[in-house]
């Protein structure tokens, strides 16, 4: 199902606050911060010529965030970046001078960080990033996880020294509980979603994601004509779409937001024309995208720069995991978690429908960009769905050059 953006703000300039958050200067600063990360390296950009030919498009490029900062997910860019920024800002305030990231490990900065606790709710990946960032700067982390988060994902967060707090219900319930407890304890909420009165920190998280676009535009010979990006609350979709709009202007690509059909909060928000909270139903296999209410900041951006919204089904997500693990032709094998390939699943759905192809002007000249947002962040679940362990999927460098 495809829904074109009919919002009154569609194609309007970004709100000045959002433009400042996602512009080139901000992205430069994110990349500067990344140079101080021990395991930082640009993630691979793979080409899929066999799949492109099969779908009748010119090229497909996949940015593989499964290699990001040792955390296996694009979320590594957001939460930890926001934590570092918040610690440096607090140190600047207390020490009475501007503290740069070069001083992050200075004793006086570490002492201030030690008195700070970063809290967040997570499906798995964002919490791991916040916990890693807290460990990096010497702060504490309290991570709230709902009942649907697997024990393997909980353990992956806990290994960074975070306090893990289980919450009954859904991701949205854990968001509310994290905000409540943090307010009572004086902790700082580092959320990747926003609500009325809480926008700046989610904006910093989104700002971290601009590194994906900066790297991609350098890796590509030509900018993409079409981009399909999956959404939970919408943070990465908004960051990618917003930065592309600012960087490319009138030459920006057609941007499609892809939701799981079982958790389509952005699709339904686009249909309603304003943010809506949808009813929780049967869980989706796309666990990292299982969100029932959009981020207000993300929607403010997407209402202006997203061109269309669509949904994919459970079988689409599992099929793309398997296709990427067992590629055709010279396509490289890619490990994509349950949510990682949802954007590519959206492209496959769109390419197979003549009406949608025509609406989006998808054709043999189209240069399509998608993001594998996560690797096998739950290896047991991956093996169950793909029939192979992630370490057995022979990821190669074939097709890695744009």
UniProtKB/TrEMBL annotation:
It comes from the Bacteria. Residues 38-358 form the Tryptophan synthase beta chain-like PALP domain. It is an enzyme of class 4 (lyase). The keyword DNA damage does not apply. It holds the Pfam family PALP. InterPro entries: DiNH2opropionate_NH3_lyase, TrpB-like_PALP, TrpB-like_PALP_sf. Keywords: Lyase, Pyridoxal phosphate. GO terms for molecular function: diaminopropionate ammonia-lyase activity; pyridoxal phosphate binding. Its cofactor is pyridoxal 5'-phosphate. SUPFAM superfamilies: Tryptophan synthase beta subunit-like PLP-dependent enzymes. Its EC number is 4.3.1.15. This is Diaminopropionate ammonia-lyase. It comes from Microvirga tunisiensis.
């Amino acid at each position: 199902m495809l829904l074109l953006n009919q919002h009154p703000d569609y194609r309007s300039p970004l709100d000045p606050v959002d433009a400042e958050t996602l512009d080139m200067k901000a992205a430069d600063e994110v990349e500067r911060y990344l140079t101080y990360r021990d395991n930082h390296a640009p993630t691979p950009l793979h080409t899929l010529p066999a799949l492109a030919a099969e779908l009748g498009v010119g090229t497909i490029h996949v940015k593989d965030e499964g290699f990001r900062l040792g955390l296996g997910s694009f979320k590594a860019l957001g939460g930890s970046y926001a934590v570092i920024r918040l610690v440096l800002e607090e140190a600047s305030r207390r020490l009475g001078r501007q503290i740069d990231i070069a001083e992050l490990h200075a004793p006086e900065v570490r002492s201030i960080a030690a008195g700070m606790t970063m809290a967040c709710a997570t499906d798995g990946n964002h919490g791991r990033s916040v916990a890693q960032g807290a460990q990096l700067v010497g702060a504490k982390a309290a991570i709230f996880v709902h009942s649907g988060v697997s024990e393997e994902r909980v353990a992956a967060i806990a290994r960074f020294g975070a306090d893990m707090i289980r919450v009954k219900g859904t991701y949205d319930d854990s968001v509310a509980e994290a905000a409540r407890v943090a307010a009572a304890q004086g902790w700082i909420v580092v959320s990747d979603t926003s609500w009325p009165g809480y926008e700046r920190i989610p904006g910093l998280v989104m700002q971290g994601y601009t590194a994906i676009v900066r790297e991609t535009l350098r890796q590509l010979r030509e900018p993409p004509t079409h981009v399909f990006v999956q959404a939970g609350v919408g943070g990465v979709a908004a960051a990618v779409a917003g930065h592309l709009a600012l960087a490319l202007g009138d030459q920006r690509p057609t941007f499609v937001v892809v939701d799981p059909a079982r958790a389509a909060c952005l699709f339904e928000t686009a249909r309603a024309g304003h943010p809506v909270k949808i009813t929780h139903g049967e869980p989706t296999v796309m666990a990292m995208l299982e969100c029932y209410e959009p981020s207000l900041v993300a929607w403010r951006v997407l209402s202006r720069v997203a061109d269309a919204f669509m949904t994919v089904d459970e079988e689409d997500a599992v099929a793309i995991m398997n296709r990427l693990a067992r590629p055709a032709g010279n396509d490289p094998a890619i490990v994509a978690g349950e949510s990682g390939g949802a954007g590519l699943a959206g492209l496959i759905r769109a390419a197979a429908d003549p009406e949608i192809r025509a609406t989006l002007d998808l054709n043999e000249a189209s240069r399509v960009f998608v993001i594998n947002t996560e690797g096998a962040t739950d290896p047991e679940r991956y093996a169950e769905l793909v029939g192979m362990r992630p370490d057995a999927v022979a990821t190669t460098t074939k097709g890695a050059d744009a």
